[in-house]
Amino acid sequence: MNTEATTKKTVTIVVPVYNEAENIPHFAAAVDEAMAGLPYDYEILFVDDGSREESREVLRKTAAADLHVRALYLSRNYGHQAALTCGIDNADGDAVVTMDGDMQHPPALLPKLLALWEQGYDVVQTIRQTTEGVSAFKRLTSKYYYKALNLISEVPVQPGGSDFRLMDRQAVLALRQYREHDRFIRGIVGAMGFRQVQVPFVAPERYAGTSKFSLKKMAKFALDGILGNSILPLRISFYIGLVSLLLSFALFGHVLFETFEGDTVPGWSTIVIVMAFFGGTQLMVLGVLGEYIGHIFREVKGRPLYLVDKSAGHLTNERQTTYNTGR
């Protein structure tokens, strides 16, 4: 028996994809090149998040041609974070690397992440310094979003942090215990602790295609990050309500004073302004409460985080059904 082969550490590279047919073969080849010569057994686990084009067929062909590749196909589009969770749940490596398949997370960084893991770090987190070709609007919104998030978050979230990271087996098993539906994995990983180190990088432009992360998805992701990491919006709502109550007392005192002075003039403008102010305040507070209640509603239903449709590559049925219920 080859003792060297049996003692090799294993690495699973988890890659969620959605309509990325043009990128998949190029990405797999780039990973194979980066891992060549390293003393690890590795696999590339693609998770197809309900693609509507030929990504599934491309994945089947890639898995058939490359023994390092296997794939899971979700039953529909569940979103990036759920697809990432599916991959992590089904990753068997001693180290698990999560990254996007559009080449904006450079596979060439893999040896550096693994070297830091060998030094004893449980989480090697990459920090995106900038992205080539990204708009100024996206850079600014990302920058100030993380600043605002860290002002209210109970656990600091690293600005520029991405879902390109390496996790030791211990950290992966810990992450699997977090089963909330409205997921913000960057915040969860930061909250877990363990020994972490950061690696800065410049994200290149996409190899092919366009980003599937629309403004609507970006806004939802940002909101999940806020609501999942802080209850401060609820407290702010309370203070807004308190200030509104105090203002109402002040307005009531003003009305009494004018009445005693005999200076009251019937007018609809004051009434409209007051009603608009307090009505808007109440609706805003109710909206914040509604968001939290909506999150609670999704959690108490206890539905699966995702459902796996099919698989390709060397994935056994037992492994496929271990975590796909989300509980």
Describe the model.
It contains twelve helices and eight strands. By secondary structure, it is α/β, with parallel strands linked by helices. Strand 1 (9-17), helix 2 and strand 2 (40-48) form a beta-alpha-beta unit. The two termini are 39 Å apart. The protein is elongated, with a radius of gyration of 25 Å. Helices cover 49% and strands 18% of the residues. Helix 10 (232-261) runs antiparallel to helix 11 (268-300). The protein has an eight-stranded mixed β-sheet, sandwiched between helices.
Features:
327 residues; alpha/beta; 12 helices; disordered C terminus
- Into which percent range does the helicity of residues fall? 40-55%
**Average residue pLDDT:** 76
Shape from CA axes? elongated
Write down how many β-strands occur, each being a DSSP E stretch of 2 or more residues: 8
Which stretches are poorly predicted, pLDDT < 50 over at least 5 residues?
A: 1-5, 315-327
Helical region count? Answer: 12
- Name the structural class: alpha/beta
State the end-to-end distance: 39 Å
Largest sheet: 8 strands, mixed
Physical arrangement of strands within the biggest beta sheet:
7-5-6-4-1-2-3-8
Sheet-strand content, in percent, reads 15-25%
Radius of gyration: 25 Å
Topology pattern, helix = H, strand = E = HEHEHEHEHEHEHHEHHHEH
